[in-house]
Design goal:
Low-confidence stretches of chain B: none
CATH topology of chain A: Arp2/3 complex 21 kDa subunit ARPC3
Radius of gyration of chain A: 17 Å
Number of helices of chain B: 3
Largest interface: A-B, 27 and 20 residues
Order of helices and strands of chain A: HHHHHH
Helix content of chain A: 55-70%
Number of helices of chain A: 6
Shape of chain B: rod-shaped
Number of strands of chain A: 0
Shape of chain A: globular
Oligomer: heterodimer
CATH superfamily of the largest domain in chain B: N-utilization substance G protein NusG, insert domain
Number of strands of chain B: 7
Largest sheet of chain A: none
CATH architecture of the largest domain in chain B: Sandwich
Strand content of chain A: under 5%
Number of domains of chain B: 2
Structural class of chain B: alpha+beta
Mean pLDDT of chain B: 86
CATH architecture of chain A: Orthogonal Bundle
Distance between the termini of chain B: 51 Å
Radius of gyration of chain B: 24 Å
Strand content of chain B: 25-35%
Amino acid sequence: MTPSTIEIVPTADDQRIARLAAAAIVLTVAEAAIPLPLPGVKPGLANIVTLIVLARWGWRDSVWVALLRVFAGSLLLGQLFAPGFFLSLSGSLASLATLGLAMHLPRRWFGPVSLSVLAAFAHIGGQLVLARLWLVPHDGVFYLVPVFAFAATLFGLVNGLVAAKLMRGRASGTI
Amino acid sequence: MKARLAEWIVLLRPGDWLVLAAGLLVCVLSALVLWRGGAPDKAVVRAGGKVFAELGLARAQTVEVPGPLGVTRIEIEPGRARVASDPGPRQYCVRQGWLTRSGAVAICAPNQVSLSLAGGAADYDSLNY
């Protein structure tokens, strides 16, 4: 009688996604150590990875990387299924949907910075909708919208620039 | 320094500037719309527990409110209101000065007159807070 074993053979695709997601998770964990004045305002450095994946391997891979990052990142930080996790998840879903649309903008005119800023705005939008519906059922949450919008513009610009720089620096697939 | 900056700026494409400008516009507009809260648009005067008058804050005027001790004079200027004089012994409501935020209240308890500002996005009234 032979023992039955199920062997899952990861494909090259799986390994690439895992590697990229690992890079994004490292950035998430590193970022959690940065003290910030306001809860909810974060640089979102992991989105640099999402942007590069989107540009190089397409939307499907970037969804995988971003969602793996949300799950594994919150697991590492002890936040899994805490409110912060759901905020992060809804923000990520909203920004992935936005990226899926925005990636069809003409590349000649709209670079990574556009995608990054749009995704950042979608991220705060998704978070605010969930926060308003579930965590803080009061319009008071919208009082902070200007602060979040400014953070989205600023960090969107910074992340977009870093992504653009990284993509320009390397011709192909060394990440 | 300048060369370092230029190195980054070349990474921005024309549409990126447009998106950034739109982002900043959203910041400014949302701040203007959402942080205007607290601008009152009317003053409510109560005497003996009943609403005596509701006055718009658009133009300056003076209202005299009769109470058990005498007449309380309420003065209104565009955007603000105060109790100008009151016959009460301690003058708390007069010394409160101009009320400018929505929800602010001045109470002249001995004469049973109160002045409160309403309208806009009232945050807290000074009693309950």
